[in-house]
Write a structure and sequence with these properties.
The complex is a heterotrimer.
Chain A: H1 8-22, H2 27-44, H3 59-83, E1 92-97, H4 103-115, E2 119-124, E3 130-135, H5 141-159
Antiparallel strand pairs in A: 1-3, 2-3
Chain B: H1 2-26, H2 30-55, H3 60-84
Helix pairs in contact in B: 1-2, 2-3
Chain C: H1 2-26, H2 30-33, H3 35-59, H4 67-92, H5 96-111
Classes of the chains: A mainly alpha, B mainly alpha, C mainly alpha.
């Protein structure tokens, strides 16, 4: 079983993407999808020297639900800022210290930050210990950092082994 | 009802594309133009999906997916060129 | 009923795509312009894709979910391209310290 599915989650994603691409759940397509889901990871397993380990994969679902809700809110906030008066905005750069040790976790956090209200990630320091953010309207720097750490970084620390 | 909504969305996307084009022509620096092109790709994806709803055809799906893919690859290649002066190292 | 929901998502999607592009055309500086396309345009396209999903699911036999692929792909790639554009801009202006110094000078000029 371990040799047939070196990356079970990756195989599952491949199978779902194949079914979505064909837009059908017919038995033939499902079988062909299983064939692809078994063979593709066998060929690409060498590209992943240190694979991310998900300790609690089911937590990802609740994280995604929170993220989708926040994206909707973020859009309303940014829409108001875009249509409102320009001169009242206070744009600026913020440095966010990172406590994540895993590359995949950093990628997920960076994407999350870019999709949520008024923040875009701009640069990652070479030692992977801090992230540079651009904020559209800075109100309270410390509060924003605490918010990001509490809402996004802590669940990610639980999901990935950190 | 649906016809009106589709027409409204068409107008919105068309105006959005014109604004992107304005930024593409004007944009003072290179990254501005890359951003404008990237947004144009995303809006074109939306336009194709809308066209599929309008004509009641699903054949535009593959084209929309490919345009989204190509847009991302193009943006990454252009940014990499600006960052390193080379695309393939 | 379903038609009403489809129309709602179409209108919301179109409006958000437009707002994102307005933001890109209107903001005075590149780093601010990044905010429009990464957020508003993603939700705009997402709304139109949801509408398309509802429309084709009601018209033909069976569900039509393949638009989810485009939505997921855009949600993953939009932040990545924004990050790369920001990095290339920082690189072109000679590092983050230069940018911080310049914006500090501008703020002082505004006050005096």
């Amino acid at each position: 079983m371990k040799r047939l599915f070196p990356q079970p989650l990756f195989s599952l994603c491949l199978w779902l993407i194949w079914l979505l691409l064909n837009n059908s759940a017919a038995p033939g397509q499902a079988l062909l999808g299983i064939l692809l889901a078994v063979t593709i990871p066998l060929f690409t397993v060498r590209f992943w020297p240190n694979r991310p380990r998900l300790r609690r994969p089911w937590r990802l679902a609740s994280y995604l639900a929170v993220l989708l809700w926040d994206i909707t809110i973020a859009n309303l906030v940014v829409a108001r800022l875009i249509l409102g008066p320009m001169h009242r905005l206070r744009p600026g750069f913020i440095t966010l210290p990172l406590d994540l040790c895993n590359d995949s976790a950093i990628v997920v956090l960076t994407n999350t930050i870019s999709l949520t209200p008024g923040t875009v990630s701009a640069d990652l320091s070479i030692d992977r210990r801090s992230l540079l953010l651009h904020v559209l309207d800075v109100d309270d720097e410390a509060q924003l950092i605490a918010h990001i750490k509490y809402r996004y970084e802590r669940p990610l620390q639980e999901i990935f082994e950190c | 009802m649906l016809k009106t909504a589709v027409t409204f969305a068409f107008i919105c996307i068309a105006v959005a594309l014109l604004l992107n084009f304005f930024r593409l022509v004007r944009g003072p620096s290179m990254p501005d133009r890359i951003l404008a092109l990237d947004t144009m790709y995303i809006n074109t994806t939306a336009l194709l999906v809308l066209f599929g709803v309008y004509l009641n055809l699903t054949v535009f799906f593959e084209a929309a997916l490919l345009i989204a893919l190509m847009g991302f690859v193009g943006t990454v290649a252009l940014c990499k060129y600006l960052l390193r002066g080379d695309i393939i190292e | 009923m379903l038609e009403l929901l489809t129309s709602f998502f179409l209108i919301v999607g179109g409006l958000f795509a437009l707002i994102g592009s307005i933001g890109m055309a209107r903001f005075p500086e590149l780093f601010m312009r990044l905010h429009g396309p990464t957020k508003a345009t993603t939700l705009g396209v997402g709304g139109i894709l949801i509408a398309s999903m509802l429309h084709f699911s009601s018209r033909e036999a069976g569900l039509s979910l393949h638009e989810l692929l485009i939505a997921m792909f855009l949600m993953i790639t939009a932040p990545v391209s924004a990050h790369l554009i920001a990095r290339s801009m920082i690189h072109l202006r000679g590092g983050i310290d230069q940018i911080r110094k310049k914006s500090g000078e501008q703020a002082e000029q505004k006050e005096t």
